[in-house]
Amino acid sequence: MKTDSTLTKRQITNIRRKLLAKANADHAQHPQYLGYWDTWSVVRITRDVVLPKSGLVFKEGQYAIADLSSAPKIALTPGFILVYSEISQVSTSIQASLIERILPAPSKTTD
Fold this sequence. Notes:
Blueprint: E1 2-7, H1 9-26, E2 41-45, E3 49-51, E4 55-58, E5 63-67, E6 80-85, E7 90-95, E8 99-104
Parallel strand pairs: 1-8
Antiparallel strand pairs: 2-5, 2-8, 3-4, 5-6, 6-7
Protein backbone atom coordinates (compact mmCIF):
# COMPACT_ATOMS: atom_id res chain seq x y z
CA MET A 1 0.00 0.00 0.00
CA LYS A 2 1.44 3.35 -1.05
CA THR A 3 0.85 6.68 0.68
CA ASP A 4 0.02 10.11 -0.72
CA SER A 5 0.36 13.37 1.17
CA THR A 6 -0.73 15.95 -1.39
CA LEU A 7 -4.00 16.91 0.30
CA THR A 8 -4.49 19.12 3.34
CA LYS A 9 -6.05 17.77 6.49
CA ARG A 10 -9.18 19.84 5.79
CA GLN A 11 -9.51 18.39 2.27
CA ILE A 12 -9.15 14.85 3.63
CA THR A 13 -11.73 15.57 6.33
CA ASN A 14 -14.19 16.90 3.75
CA ILE A 15 -13.67 13.91 1.44
CA ARG A 16 -14.08 11.50 4.37
CA ARG A 17 -17.24 13.26 5.58
CA LYS A 18 -18.77 13.01 2.08
CA LEU A 19 -17.86 9.32 1.70
CA LEU A 20 -19.21 8.43 5.17
CA ALA A 21 -22.45 10.30 4.46
CA LYS A 22 -22.84 8.38 1.18
CA ALA A 23 -22.19 4.99 2.82
CA ASN A 24 -24.60 5.78 5.65
CA ALA A 25 -27.27 7.00 3.21
CA ASP A 26 -26.83 3.88 1.06
CA HIS A 27 -27.54 1.73 4.13
CA ALA A 28 -29.99 3.93 6.07
CA GLN A 29 -32.59 1.14 5.96
CA HIS A 30 -30.16 -1.18 7.78
CA PRO A 31 -29.61 0.18 11.32
CA GLN A 32 -26.85 -2.35 12.04
CA TYR A 33 -24.57 -0.31 9.74
CA LEU A 34 -24.98 2.95 11.66
CA GLY A 35 -21.42 3.97 12.58
CA TYR A 36 -19.92 0.89 10.87
CA TRP A 37 -17.49 2.96 8.76
CA ASP A 38 -16.62 5.58 11.42
CA THR A 39 -13.05 4.31 11.92
CA TRP A 40 -12.26 3.84 8.23
CA SER A 41 -9.63 5.96 6.45
CA VAL A 42 -9.56 7.79 3.13
CA VAL A 43 -7.70 6.03 0.33
CA ARG A 44 -7.26 6.61 -3.40
CA ILE A 45 -7.76 3.77 -5.87
CA THR A 46 -4.68 3.39 -8.10
CA ARG A 47 -6.35 1.63 -11.04
CA ASP A 48 -9.78 0.43 -12.15
CA VAL A 49 -11.01 -2.58 -10.18
CA VAL A 50 -13.32 -4.97 -12.01
CA LEU A 51 -14.68 -8.04 -10.22
CA PRO A 52 -16.11 -11.03 -12.11
CA LYS A 53 -19.60 -10.94 -10.57
CA SER A 54 -19.86 -7.21 -9.84
CA GLY A 55 -18.21 -5.56 -12.82
CA LEU A 56 -16.51 -2.19 -12.25
CA VAL A 57 -16.45 -1.46 -8.51
CA PHE A 58 -13.75 1.25 -8.37
CA LYS A 59 -12.38 3.75 -10.89
CA GLU A 60 -8.73 4.76 -10.99
CA GLY A 61 -8.18 7.95 -9.00
CA GLN A 62 -11.42 7.59 -7.05
CA TYR A 63 -11.37 8.32 -3.32
CA ALA A 64 -12.89 5.71 -1.03
CA ILE A 65 -12.96 4.73 2.62
CA ALA A 66 -11.11 1.62 3.75
CA ASP A 67 -10.76 -0.42 6.91
CA LEU A 68 -6.97 -0.39 7.09
CA SER A 69 -7.10 -2.66 10.12
CA SER A 70 -8.93 -5.35 8.11
CA ALA A 71 -5.85 -7.00 6.57
CA PRO A 72 -5.14 -9.24 9.58
CA LYS A 73 -8.84 -10.13 9.85
CA ILE A 74 -9.00 -11.50 6.31
CA ALA A 75 -6.80 -14.49 7.04
CA LEU A 76 -7.80 -16.42 3.94
CA THR A 77 -6.77 -13.60 1.63
CA PRO A 78 -3.58 -11.96 2.94
CA GLY A 79 -2.72 -8.61 1.37
CA PHE A 80 -6.36 -7.60 0.93
CA ILE A 81 -8.20 -4.62 2.46
CA LEU A 82 -11.93 -3.90 2.86
CA VAL A 83 -12.91 -0.81 0.86
CA TYR A 84 -16.41 0.68 0.52
CA SER A 85 -17.49 0.96 -3.12
CA GLU A 86 -19.81 3.84 -3.95
CA ILE A 87 -20.51 2.12 -7.27
CA SER A 88 -21.67 -1.24 -5.92
CA GLN A 89 -22.67 0.17 -2.50
CA VAL A 90 -20.93 -2.59 -0.53
CA SER A 91 -17.63 -3.15 1.25
CA THR A 92 -15.38 -5.07 -1.09
CA SER A 93 -12.10 -6.85 -0.41
CA ILE A 94 -9.40 -5.70 -2.84
CA GLN A 95 -5.63 -6.04 -2.98
CA ALA A 96 -3.85 -3.52 -0.75
CA SER A 97 -1.54 -2.76 -3.68
CA LEU A 98 -4.51 -1.14 -5.49
CA ILE A 99 -4.90 1.67 -2.95
CA GLU A 100 -2.92 4.65 -1.71
CA ARG A 101 -3.44 5.72 1.86
CA ILE A 102 -4.13 9.44 1.99
CA LEU A 103 -2.22 11.29 4.70
CA PRO A 104 -2.36 15.03 5.42
CA ALA A 105 0.28 17.11 3.70
CA PRO A 106 3.05 18.11 6.07
CA SER A 107 2.22 21.44 7.67
CA LYS A 108 4.71 24.25 7.38
CA THR A 109 6.15 25.15 10.74
CA THR A 110 8.36 28.01 11.70
CA ASP A 111 11.02 27.54 14.34
